[in-house]
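Re: the request from the purification team.
They wanted to know what the chain is likely to look like in 3D before they choose a buffer screen. I agreed to run a prediction and write the result into the notebook, where they can find it.
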Amino acid sequence: FIQDNFLENEEFNYLLSIPKKIDLNLFTKPRGVIVIKSEDKRVPKDIRFNMEKMFKKYENNCIQVLKNINSRKTRLYDFYAVTIIITPPGTVEKVHIDNYSKLLTGVIYLMPEKNYGTFLYSSKFDENPLEVNWKRNRILFFGNKYKESWHSFKSDSDNSHPRITCLLTLHTKRINAHMLSDLGWFKFIFAFIETKGRENKDKFKRLVVNILKKLNLKKS
């Protein structure tokens, strides 16, 4: 679902002013990507309040979009987030699926005038993705579906300005129920076993690493 001219001018300009009002070094991630979340206590209280106030205005819009995508998932909605993402020129975000706490993502294109949009894939290995082109104040909504909602984005290396977006996201605390709504019981059982097996494998790896570290310390 795509909508142009989503925000009012005052809201649009306010979002763009936020990075100028805070210490961006506090929010810089690897590769120089800056992530400013409305729930982050390091963000000044008045800015957090205004970000959340803006979301509340559009909350029903987001819920309606989710209902149109999958009406059963509206019952899973527990909380929301507003996130500003500043991506340096030349940065490429690989093909991925979002954390499964997300039910719906709405990405608003803010700045600059021209850049790459968002790429949507039919599978992780799709070589011909659909690009939802960049246009300022355009919002792209997409649902989060288990092993299906593959997407990526990148910031134009020929552009001197970073790619700035704002995400409006609906979340659930009931991850297993979210998986079940997508898969049904039969596929859910196998996916649950697969997930737990991967988690246990990671725990075992960490355990082995910690044991080896302790052994090395004793030797020294």
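For the purification team: The mean pLDDT is 85.
Please add any questions underneath this entry.
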